[in-house]
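fwd from M.: "can u put these together and see what the complex looks like"

so here's what she sent:
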Amino acid sequence: MPRAGQRPRLVDVAERADVSLATASRALAGRDGVSAEVADRVRQVARELGYVANPYARTLAGGASSTVGLIVHQVDDPYFSEIAGGVIQLAAEQGLLVQICQSGRDPDYELQQLRHLIAQRVGIILISGSGYDDPRVEAAARAELAAFQDHGGRVAAIGRHALGVDAVLPDNEAGGNALAHHLIDLGHRRITVAAGSAGLTTVADRLAGVSSALRQRGLPPADLAVVHGDFTRGGGRTVTEQILNEHPETTAIIALNDAMAMGVLSTLRSRRIPVPGRMSVVGFDDVSVAADLAPSLTTIRLPMTEMGRTALSLALKPRSARPRRRSTGHLLVVRDSTGPVPTA
Amino acid sequence: MPRAGQRPRLVDVAERADVSLATASRALAGRDGVSAEVADRVRQVARELGYVANPYARTLAGGASSTVGLIVHQVDDPYFSEIAGGVIQLAAEQGLLVQICQSGRDPDYELQQLRHLIAQRVGIILISGSGYDDPRVEAAARAELAAFQDHGGRVAAIGRHALGVDAVLPDNEAGGNALAHHLIDLGHRRITVAAGSAGLTTVADRLAGVSSALRQRGLPPADLAVVHGDFTRGGGRTVTEQILNEHPETTAIIALNDAMAMGVLSTLRSRRIPVPGRMSVVGFDDVSVAADLAPSLTTIRLPMTEMGRTALSLALKPRSARPRRRSTGHLLVVRDSTGPVPTA
DNA sequence: AGCGCTTACGTAAGCGCTTACGTACCCGGC
DNA sequence: GCCGGGTACGTAAGCGCTTACGTAAGCGCT
């Protein structure tokens, strides 16, 4: 008999279906060893009673945890919130709950969040964002995740390699390459990269693609300048000031993510520098506002929502012997922020 | 003795500190009935062992759940992601984990998410976003939340009243009022509101503020037109087309949130209608990109991060007899998207 | 008819915690 | 000296589930 005002328990279902606790549990878990007839009866009663298993009891008893932990650099950055959207979508479809944490782009804090998630016994961990090229931190994270997996935890990474786990990876190098080719095709020769923190693998990869484009076109490395800031709008603004001062010959700026590109555009506007009339600007990611900026932003489209979904689906699959990789497509989206090099 | 390769349990701590399980539990919970000396010893051992309580066991046994559920309309909408950022910030400071869900602006689905969170036994629920003026849905949510609270659950709402729970509420009416006054001061007389879905209380409240401003200025109601879309950039674009067709005399558009305002700006730009030269545009919320748009957006600033924090802190306080309300400040931020009415 | 094997189910242990209750001890008061 | 009352701690009962193991029934086989 369900206690008044309380959620029904498995015993309540079992009693009412006139079976034992064990049978009820098996029936609801879809395990076999239960006749189809009894299983139906149990499921029927559960539905009538509105029974939902207590996840705490279930997990304690050794069942699989139904919560997935997601670590992002910052939730209110559209890149991450779109990824989170994809994760949450698929999680909802699967009846899973998503625990979300931010690292604030601090590797040590991220490690701490990771440990916290593990200590909280979430079943699945998704790590999103760029990796750090600090070997100490990445090795610690790697070790932590390996131990977690050995105890049955499931892990996937989004946009970062070197963690030794399943990962969905955009081809950052190819994207950077495509951007640079686009600008070179437009006649630009003095290109400056507005890069994020030098310690991020994403930055290094995108940058590598840009450099290789120059090489492929036989252009001297001196045609390329690189200025580091951080992957935010504020970072884009700061970096733009620096570019204008230190590399005044620049005719095109490659921002290594859209957030920075927004900062770049905003600063150029306040300096009354026409885009693309006097300066072309490109971004990377194609966050959804990119199309609505003025001018609309030429950028590399990454399927962020899809990336989130894919990462979760990887983590949901049984663990494979060696880490899987899923690469995502990318697409150069040409809009109004790029144009031919100005004729001096 | 901690089992090899396993996380330490409370018994491990207890044994090593040479006390009983109960004492160890009390010591770590900071409950009294434990001598200071013993309590210190236990805490010390726990630290050495890296002990973290298993939240599933803790919750099952009747301890407080340490997870907060957050329901938003959509995570990749900057309004919600900034609120979520605030919630996550404070949660991290308190050692809590945040479970996040999206309702996709569908009242029925939102109700389902709410039930899911409750079924999953989260301890605290935060509901963010506009309420629905559908009495059926709101009443159902109210009932669900009341029952949840009666069983010890904690609830707070952000930006919605009528739920019968603690709430943090921006003064939507005053904000709408301030926007309208600003435009009227600039000489605008044919104002059209780009409103979100008619069924949202937020829309009704902001709209009420706008209407009252016209009344306060002795302007005829006919000076105001209202077109409904949805609270997204796409909604803003659609609505703008409609305004241009059906209300060509309009000189100023009040978008009832920033997302719509972005859609409005984008459509006006593609139609080559100068802002604010021929049309002034205002938004509401002041999401962080608002300042970086071209032209930068005049809007009402809401302290979204703070709202998230406040909501969680309300939920963390012991329940009060009657629902508390915290109102947030709001501020008219005048930027470049508004100007004097064009002289015909 | 008797054996073993499978299938369908029940019994009960135990996951790691919290907490009601019990017990030993020490204090001061008469 | 004894007793009532507080303090500090231990014992053990659960929280609601999963699952290893046990058992009874039914099957085909010799």
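replying to her w this: Residues 19-23, 26, 32-35, 38, 57, 59-62 of chain A lie near DNA strand C (CB under 10 Å from a C1').
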